[in-house]
Amino acid sequence: MNRIPTSALAAGLTMAVVLTGCGSPEPTAQEPAATAGAGTGPVTLTWWSWDESKFLDPVVAKFNAAHDHIKLKVVKQADNPGTAANLRNVVAAGQDVPCLVKAFGEVPGLVGEGLLADITEVFQPYTTKGLFNEASFPGAKAGDRFYGIPTGFAPSFMMINRAVYDKHGVAVPKTWDDVIAAGKEFKKHGVYVMNLAGEDPSTLINLVQQAGGSWYAIEGDSWKVDFLSPQSLKAADVVQRLVDDGLVANQTYQDRPALISYFDSGKMVSLPTSTWQLGNYELNYKRSLGDWQPIDLPQFADAPAFVTPAHGGALLVPKGCPNIKEAVEAGVWMTTGKDAIDASYQQDTRQYAWPGAVPDPSPWIDSVVPEKLFGERKGEAKGVILKATQSGRDPWVVGPNFTGVFSELQDQWAKIVTKEITVRQALEHMQKFTVDDLRSKNINVRG
């Protein structure tokens, strides 16, 4: 699939392991005068993020204007790896620990490192107020405990080059079997139905999630690993048929301009996608602008209900935060509050930060739908995106060694798309690799 959230998240798991010192990052201009623990005035929460100030400052200003008892202070970080190194330093030292941190990795792994605070009791009351899409909860949990405030997920849907579909008389696909059938028809005309980049196994990962599966599970005090579950094999079957029948292109993501030009050419006609990618297509498509149609993500033919994969993330609360109650209150406001989402609006792009944690993002959907990409079918996008949001499910559990596992999976995936090995052979390899790696780290595992 076209780099939808899971692969981006997985790729982002690579973190610095050599600590280089945290230095003294400079706070942004909104730093309040009061400081936590001063005994008077409001509680001040330090929020670490590497996002640009133009995204952070309006939200902080809005929060501070609306709250007397809590104030936010942003301390900018250089980047994802720098945040990881800095947090490890301050948690180990037990000093200057921030209370909110933009996620730089998956919660279970960070909990395993001892970096995060258990906020379950404080956060639990907010889970019953209808503020959150419940599919966003797993991304903030390890086991059944919360260690961050859910930031949610980007909805998964598909866009097709409807002009090429219509030219060759191919029906809009509703199932993955339909996609394969469409691919066979397109192949007669030298057109590929999808693209599977050799370095990006997100298609397989997302199909496993859509089937309701996960390669990891927690059972008692052990990890269970199962790459050969029925759900995983169902996903593998779709990929195998696409590859065996030669229905997919293998354009790399490493040359982005060339990739976009290829998508624009009409030689590949179906893109699993999400809201954050649409603006880039609008900006760069020339030949096919207006030819695309947003459609529901294809389903497994025997699926009992419409489902989209929805693995999300969290606004982290580190271990050592001195004001967990206030951190949770502020985090909930930032991830679900209308004022917070409205404050994220960017005049240059005319877009809001995607409100991935809320159950109904409909007030903000129009801003992510480009003006020309879908032509006369632009009006269909809102319903497709809202359905994808409401149908999101997150069965995915991230194991403690997933960074290395993902890298190994990338190597296996490259062999899958070039027909050197089958998907099942890759899964059998990953089963042994993952179990052996966990055991080498003295982690209890079954599989």
Salient structural properties:
D-Maltodextrin-Binding Protein, domain 2; five-stranded mixed beta sheet; disordered N terminus; alpha/beta
List the helices and strands and how they pair.
Elements: H1 5-11, E1 43-49, H2 53-66, E2 70-76, H3 80-93, E3 100-102, H4 107-112, H5 120-123, E4 141-142, E5 145-146, E6 148-152, E7 157-161, H6 162-167, H7 176-187, E8 194-195, H8 202-210, E9 216-219, E10 222-225, H9 230-244, E11 248-249, H10 256-264, E12 270-273, H11 275-284, E13 292-295, E14 308-309, E15 313-316, H12 324-336, H13 338-343, H14 362-365, H15 381-390, E16 392-393, H16 402-417, H17 423-440, E17 445-446
Parallel strand pairs: 1-2, 1-3, 8-11, 10-17, 14-16
Antiparallel strand pairs: 3-15, 4-5, 6-15, 7-12, 7-13, 9-10
Helix pairs in contact: 8-9, 16-17
